[in-house]
């Protein structure tokens, strides 16, 4: 692939640093962006699940399985779709002190479609564990997941990676010519399409669309998650088509373009099939027999005593409570 230098009109600067030292630790902004996205997605998903009637913070139990599996499979997906980069002759893929080691996630290389696969497996296991319907959880997660992906993309900005073709548009992205990803043969002031910014804008807009569509059309049984797949993947088809970072090519298309096309198709299939299978509304966020209800409450005057609020109170308890408030007749 060859490029020609384009005149600089205006630009989006890239951060001069991608990490900082905190004592003996190196803190990478890439990791902070991902962690912030995970926290935001967890908070929003908890709010949405709780409103549906699920136990508060049950999302944590599911996330304990979903998040680690999402990260592991995301890394494996990236490594095996960039096989030559990690396993070519001379590459020390096993050495954690080398940039091209398969373990060095802090230098980038977390594939979102891999995270969706690993996260889906972990979420399914977590839902089995907690009794939450898998599709209920997926629908509750969808807006938060898209928002988390928008936040995580700023990590690519800090790492100066995954940018697009050269451009003379006023929002062109500056990339340091010392960056290993800077294409050879270009002028040092060449600007590039800020694909991270395109995806941030597309994802934030998608969050608003999902929240509106979910409420307007009462999308349940996984149909809101299907819409998420369609929206996100449609955007990725475009961004992937203008990115210039190395990628395996299959039938003339980057692997992630194929993954995005598959995502659109899968999302449409989920929406159509689930609409036909479940024309009504979900009766509960829990599978039958696993329903949760707030059966106990803590007395404020004694945290060691619990009151079963599911059973009717004894007459003596009612009389005592009324007398203590001065309303006994």
Can you tell me about this structure?
- The structure is a single chain.
- This protein has 329 residues and is mainly alpha-helical.
- Helix content is 52%, strand content 8%.
- The chain has ten helices and eight strands.
- β7 and β8 (302-308) form a beta hairpin.
- The protein is globular.
Topology of helices and strands:
Blueprint: E1 19-22, E2 25-28, H1 29-52, H2 58-80, H3 83-87, H4 112-130, H5 134-152, H6 154-159, E3 173-174, E4 191-192, H7 195-216, H8 223-242, E5 249-250, E6 253-254, H9 255-277, E7 296-299, E8 302-308, H10 315-324
Antiparallel strand pairs: 1-2, 3-4, 5-6, 7-8
Helix pairs in contact: 1-2, 1-5, 2-4, 4-5, 5-7, 5-8, 7-8, 8-9
Count of all domains: 2
Overall shape: globular
Strand order, main sheet: write it out: 1-2
Helix-residue proportion: 40-55%
Number of strands: 8
- Please state the structural category: mainly alpha
Radius of gyration using CA atoms only:
25 Å
Cα(first) to Cα(last) distance is 90 Å
Largest sheet: 2 strands, antiparallel
Average of the residue pLDDT scores: 84
Strand content bin:
5-15%
pLDDT below 50 for ≥5 consecutive residues: which ranges? Answer: 1-9, 296-329
H and E order: EEHHHHHHEEHHEEHEEH
GO molecular function: phosphatidylglycerol-prolipoprotein diacylglyceryl transferase activity
Membrane topology: Multi-pass membrane protein
Family: Belongs to the Lgt family.
InterPro entries: Lgt
